[in-house]
Amino acid sequence: MIRFVDLFAGIGGIRLGFEQAMWELGIEAHCVLSSEIDQRAQGTYQLNYGERPQGDIYAIKDFPHFDFMLAGFPCQPFSYAGKQQGFVDTRGTLFFEIERLLKEHRPMGFLLENVRGLTSHDEGRTFATIIEKLKALDYGVSYLILNSSNFGIPQNRVRVYIVGLDHQQPTLTLQSNLGAADSHKFKDFLAQSDLFENYPSSVVADILENNPDNNYDCSPEFIEKLLKIVGNNPEKLHGYRLIDHRNGNSIHSWELGIKGDCDELEIEFMNALIANRRKKIFGTHQDGKKLTLDEIKTFFDHKDMAKIMQGLLEKGYLKETNGRYNPVAGNMSFEVFKFLDPNSISITLVTSDAHKLGVVHNGRVRRVTPRECARMQGFPDSFKCHPIDTFAYRQFGNSVSVPVVRNVILDLFKHSEMRFHAPRGNAFSCALR
Question: Do 31 and 49 form a contact (C-beta atoms < 8 A)?
């Protein structure tokens, strides 16, 4: 039996992937301690595992013996970062608790998961410090940067997975792979038949519910505004983003008339403004850039300029400050901020706006459901969602992609000599101290 702890556990996604891998390898696994500070996540964890995680990790005084550590630890700036030397200490951070527990309990190995940005934070010094601290404890350490979309998950989610073994360098056959940068490039990847040889590709259409509750439908008023733009063909919404500070494959609040209907010239002005204001000739800063009237006239000039701009100012699409103008984003007014392309992958699920992802499916213009979010993270349908949608969306946006964890653990255990015996006589065998 392998005894493991599940720290910063969320709703138990890492645990689920680990247990799936252990079952496949014929190794009995037992969680001896779980920890999660969010009480609502604790509730979802309890629904699915029959045990409520302990709370704040700082308050846990007695840890049982464990062989393996799982931790999706939060990343926050290190308190002791020096401006010249970079990060020189981990005290005051949650990673220090991981470091302390590894030192005190000496498990045979660990898996840590975090956002990709951890590897580049403070020009890489944060990540370098973490790796150095783990190695200083005499753990061999490897890491992978992987995209969930390469593991049969229809979601563009890039995360870093750090694995370590006590006094031994891990052996992995998996290699870091950032996958497709977006849903459009993913379609190009699909043409490469060998890319998904080991992990069959999955697209959004594969995880959609056939007939979800009508509560997930967008409002009739919002749908009416959208259909005016796409010529009453809702299928044309596939892949569209609703955002006011980007151009391209986007729909904007002034086109929808969120704050009041705009005529063709007003729409043309606003689209020209957001398409040109980020250009370097107007300054090196990006969002929030304000332009003078003379600067605006270099890309949009009309005899009724004053009338056009005054109308936009009055409706609230345009703002003037000391003779400079910039668009006023109405992004929070959109019921959906991105319509997923059923024939590609989703953007990354995040806690703040997973509830505002949309899809056109079976003739309905609606938001994705919590169950569909769960499927986009690789959770089986047997997994119980939080009964309140608001919290379910947040929890899946903050979770891990289960199949990625499963495959990282399988790769680690199959190719590293783990000193562990598989009790069910599986072809895989190793020996744990």
Answer: yes
Residue 128 host element (H or E): helix 125-136
H runs (alpha helix) in 178-292: 183-190, 220-229, 253-256, 264-276
pLDDT at residue number 288? 65
Give the residue from 294, 265, 297, 291 showing the smallest Cα distance to 278.
291
Q: Indicate the fold that domain 2-200+401-415 takes in CATH.
A: Rossmann fold (3.40.50)
Chain Cα centroid distance, residue 138: 32
Residue 175 tokens, joined: 């290699």
Query: 188-236, pLDDT tens digit by residue?
Result: 777 665 555 666 789 999 999 999 999 999 999 999 999 999 998 999 9
Torsion of CA 415, 421, 425, 427, to 10 degrees: 10
Choosing from 31, 75, 262, 373, the catalytic residue is: 75
Tokens of 211: 């007939």
For 69-89, write each residue's pLDDT tens digit: 999 987 655 434 444 344 555
Sequence spans of domains, the chain: 2-200+401-415, 244-328
pTM for the whole structure: 0.89
Task: Give the phi and the psi of residue 346 in degrees, each rounded to 5.
Answer: -80, 155
Is 75 annotated in the active site? yes
* Bridge partners for 318 per DSSP: 327
Please state which architecture CATH assigns to domain 244-328.
Orthogonal Bundle (1.10)
From residue 257, alpha-carbon distances to 38, 245, 252, 274, 333 in Å are 39, 16, 9, 17, 11
